[in-house]
Fold each of these.
Amino acid sequence: GELWIDDLYFHRGLCHFRLKQYSKAMENFDLVVRHARNEGMAEKSLFWMFQAQVRSGRKEEALHTQSLLEASYPRSPFLAQAWYLKAAVYEEMGEAEKAASLYRQMADQFPQSPFRFAALWNAGWLGYQGNDFPAALQAWERLSLTDPPSRWMEKVLYWKGRTLEKMNRPQEAEENYRKLLRDFPASYYSQM
């Protein structure tokens, strides 16, 4: 319950997490969550406990912990990453539609988050894999309009082209491929 004890157990939890000893990490984070006098430390511990549960394959527990984090700390700086990880958990559980929806919501809810790029990419990829080409195209179009780093733009141009081909829109696909070749001539995607 003392501040230095909270800090000690939190950092012990982080050490166990980094050593991939997730059960021990969860024990330490849980102690901080239940007994901390510092709300910030409890918030961080809850987030890291969620990550440890995800890494250890305890998906249902992880989803519960993420909901608890969101309910307890609605303005948490960890929420964008927690939403992203929650969507990834659903994706691992084979619930692609729910995952894609969460990825899109995450990008809407947290427009300044660096995770929004990967979230929109994943939403598009899940749509493409599920043959929901309009959803894939919409997600990748949003990603291309967010002024992403070039590593995203190359992928977006190529896969938008592939998606447009699947939708029987060859002229638009060709435009994407030309832009890809013009803007990123040495890219892996340009070679494809």
Amino acid sequence: LAIYDAKNSLNILNKKDLKPISKFDFKTDEITSLAFDGANLYAGFAGGEIANFSDDFSSFAGMLNLSNLSFESQITHLRVANGKIYAVAGKNAFISYDIASKKQARTNLDGAYRIATCQILNGTALITSWDRSVFSVNLSTMKAKNLGRLKSVALSAAKISSGVILGLASGEIA
């Protein structure tokens, strides 16, 4: 279990007994997103770096730095699936990074104000924006498609067996 608090401390706890495994204090760069892939933990930082933690959670090392993408490269959404890291950097850049081959691909979500949610499902990223726009990104081609707008802003997203559900600010579920 990874818990990040307002004091920029990351506590990693054993999920069985909730006893601390490790603690990291970040003074220079804030964690803005965390993702587990099985037992592997990844962190996205405000400065645009993505790091992975060692198997015993005693240390971490940077594996990808996206700070050269734009003026703002903060990692706001981080997902790991099928040996790839998917991240939203800055306002509207969607990044795919193959961990084994170290190949990186990028697409811009043109017209998106700022990304609200991001889910990976069956070779597609479903991404919503604070301006209510919904995008799909084909993960093989990295082609983005604007699917239209929701009635209200999506504040949360979750995978279910038949797809993705979105929790809207209006109280509705889409």
Amino acid sequence: MKYEEANKFINSVIENEFHHIQHYEEKGFSDTDKDQKELEDKTTEVFEKLLKSIPEEYRKLINEYSSAAFYEWVNLCRFYFKKGVIAGTTNLNFLKDTNMMEYIE
């Protein structure tokens, strides 16, 4: 397999797994993780207060901003996920400091 093909394959695997986690595991995490639930509740509370406190003509703009910010953060999460997979599969030097598995130099 050529480098370009391998790179495309790896990126496809990473993207597929990101979507799998996003669609099938995120909801369970949001429902069961106490810290995440508190963060989501606070975000919803503040956003609802903001919408109630502004004139109707600005609500659409605030909703558009919220959606744009959401997609920006999802894209940033995708970046961190990809970089984490790359780091976790290429830089395994940390294994020599653990007793979990044998490290071969």
Amino acid sequence: MSACDLFDKADDISFSTEFKESLNVENGIGSYAKTITLDATTDPEVAKYKEKIKNITLNKVTYKVSNYVGSADATFTGDILFGLNGKLGTVSIDNVNLSQASTSGAEMELDLSQDEVNAVAIQLKDDKAVDVTMAGEFSTGPVNFTVTVKINAKVTANAL
């Protein structure tokens, strides 16, 4: 390691962050597709260093269903897509019972491949935001609920 490398890294700051965005499904029935934008700068620390971010490492991407109103046996089967038309990654979701998911309050981790994790991280580093689309079918409806997608990440930025 050269002296220049040491000085370059000496002024770096790293911090953990979480940012999320919610998608409200109203009167969902049959086919469904809606896109939200996850904006990393909703975290004040990310916003503070947004022009100096050197790296973003994704630790975990989750979703959570809440405020469900509808049939107790309604399910959702489809995909959560990252980037335009899922170009950064796609995760299939099969037969999620919406009532049970909402009642449990659990955050469910999305199983992205390492290449997909890296692609989403690069998008966030470059644009500070990534589009997320939920697309699929409801088994029955109408259903109303909120889906919150959350990213847990580590950010490294130049502090100077």
